[in-house]
Amino acid sequence: MTFDEFVSRFSTEEQCRKYLSCLRWPDGFVCPKCSAGKRWEIGATLCECAKCGHQTSVIAGTVFQDTRRPLKTWFVAIWWITTQKYGVSAEGLRQVLGLKSYETSWTWLHKIRHAMVRPGRSKLQGKIEVDEAYIGGREKGGKRGRGSENKVSIAVAVELCGKSSLGRIRIQVIDDASSGSLKPFIKGNIEAGSTLVTDDWAGYSGIAADGYGHEITKAKNNSDALPHVHMVTSLLKRWLLGTHQGAVSKKHLQSYLDEYVFRFNRRKSAKRGLLFYRLLECAMNIEPITLDQLIHKDDA
Q1: What is the Rg, in whole angstroms, of the alpha carbon atoms belonging to the chain?
Q2: CA–CA distance, 233 with 104 (Å, rounded to integer)
Q3: Which of 4, 98, 112, 179 has its CA 20 to 30 A from that of 105?
Q4: Which pLDDT does position 247 carry in this prediction?
Q5: Strand-strand pairing, 195-198 and 127-135
Q6: Strand order from edge to edge, sheet including 46-49
Q7: What is the pLDDT of residue 140?
Q8: Is residue 80 part of a domain?
């Protein structure tokens, strides 16, 4: 879709709601309580299961649940986010949507980022470079590399397609560079039977026993040993500094990493409308998250 086509197709709440209904129930209505397939419409937004009487709406249990804003405004937000190559800041989104509150645009962005991790997504497979990296500043006299002070540790995995082509990536905040942090990241994001390419850090020792091939590469400079991870990490840091001016807190860093992964893995898509569709599809199939949950994320 062009922007004019987008505006024409989603200019009313009814158009937006019908589109979401097709995404949520592509084969027809299914009651979330009893799985019956017949419903009665109650007003413009609610429907009632003809069998058990359970009332629901097309946005209940989705990212859009309890929204007080028009769905067409949400659609514009998602269109804008997916059509901007390098993403948008909360202030930029606030201006585009004409929102008065920065808190509202910040919340919307994080809810949309929440939807960028598709439920049940397939793991990386084949030959994978894996390494750790560090996000954040370094105080004068502080350490570099593993064990760096005032930095957040992240694990990075990159699929290798041939000698120089990159496939998909995964990035995750980890507590440290120990085996206890790296192995759960590997098992959660990489298909067993894949071959991992790492440096000789002790945190990767014993990974072959978990069903992975393991190649250890050595070089004087880590960027030469694991060039693809190094490139992805460099691009990530540039993105954080460029789009978000580096103003990303540790508490919410994973959300920004999820957005970066979503964008990177779809970097070759020539159709922005397809990205819009995919993100809406994810938003309809993921549990809602509230402002309170976002603010107090990881506080426990």
Answers
A1: 22
A2: 30
A3: 4
A4: 66
A5: parallel
A6: 39-42, 46-49, 55-57
A7: 42
A8: no
